[in-house]
Amino acid sequence: MKGADLVPKIESCNALLSAFSRAHRTDQAWVLYAEMFRMRIPSTVVTFNVMINVLCKEGKLKKAKAFLRVMESSGVRPNVVTYNTVIGGYCSKGKVQMGIDMLDLMREKGIEPDSYTYATLISGMCKQGRIGDASKVFDEMLERGLRPSAVMYNALIDGCCNKGELDVAFRYRDEMIGRGIEPTVSTYNLLVHALFMEGRNFEANALIKEMEGKGLAPDAFTYNILINGYCKEGNVAKAFGLFDEMSNNGIRPTMVTYTSLIYVLCKRSRASEADRMFEEVKEKGLSPDLVMYNALIDGHCSSGNMVRAFELVKEMERTKVAPDEVTYNTLMRGFCLLGQVEEARELIEEMGRRGIKPDLISYNTLISGYSRRGDMKDAFRVRDEMLSRGFDPTILTYNALIQGLCKNGEGGNAEELLKEMVGNGIAPDDSTYLSLIEGLSDGKELIENADV
Q1: What is the DSSP string of 315-342?
Q2: Shortest CA distance to 159 belongs to which of 196, 185, 121?
Q3: Does residue 93 fall inside a structural domain?
Q4: pLDDT of 240-286, one tens digit each?
Q5: Are 161 and 191 in contact (CB under 8 A)?
Q6: Is residue 357 part of a domain?
Q7: For the chain, how many structural domains are there in total?
Q8: In a domain, 389, yes or no
Q9: pTM of the model
Q10: What is the DSSP-derived secondary structure letter of residue 58?
Q11: Which domain range does residue 2 map to?
């Protein structure tokens, strides 16, 4: 058009700006906007809204808010879409209060919020766990006569599920049905996942049947929720049956699908099968992530195959997947199970060199390894190091030390440690009592007379 000496209409420019924004080609959007300015093509409210959206996508929220003033100084009045864009930008970054401030400013300017405004704020609040505040905003929206959507109800249901408030989540589900809004696949996915997390598998399966009865086909998320739930339950047959069903229905398994299956195979001491599935992941063009590597490494460490575990660590380095404290804690536990505590200790040093801070699990793993082997001086040395790093001992720390002392015939020290444990507000459990009963000649009498 420029080559033909034609000045593009603003509608053409806005359409192209919108296309660049949707494609996340923000650099090209700014080049075009600058060219429009050079050609003296006046911006409309649509132009400003698109460019404010571009700024929000770039994370430049202060500039997006400042652009509102530029817009007004140009004689263009912001509309509800303008404010919704900025509110959405703030909420997507977790700055919900800033979004609420924009809502107040919007009202001051005489612009009434719409359903999208409320939906954005409700979603942002629910993601922060502010269910009470989200409910108040939702009620305000209803009082204004605005109709809620399935997306809005899903945000509320998701927030309630994340807080373990399943009764409230189901009340919202019933309310949406009462308003004539049909639950979506996402609605069912949220509720099914929450039920599985609470071990309410029978109710979860009933909900899946209800969903299918309404003609809603399970999607990849549905299958991943079910497969993950059965994997955590240890039901390998059911998990793989769903995996086959998923593939037969033309739904492509995702990284989450494969990670869940590799996890359950490893927990069932079927690491060789997990290896084959891991290779299948790579053959399908998927890139294993940290969670998948850690699951597979754990499987080989549990079976004592440290050679394969370290092969996987080297592969992680080749594929630019950085190991974390979980990776190292898993390797340490593998060495300790084999009685090779010195090798586990060396990994603590390697973690430091890599800039990975050992955590409470790291120290408890070492303490348990030394105690199991009867090296109590080393176990207490690690305990002291742990305390110096600001970590408080847990029941796992005390149980490992008490077990080691009892095995070494140091009953008096074990009794003193029990008193310290109780004094620190940590109640003994079955493992504590079992160690004392087995390790002390008067263990049963001690427990019967203990004021715990």
Answers
A1: HHHHTT----HHHHHHHHHHHHHTT-HH
A2: 121
A3: yes
A4: 999 999 989 999 999 999 999 999 999 999 999 999 999 999 999 99
A5: yes
A6: no
A7: 1
A8: no
A9: 0.76
A10: T
A11: 1-113
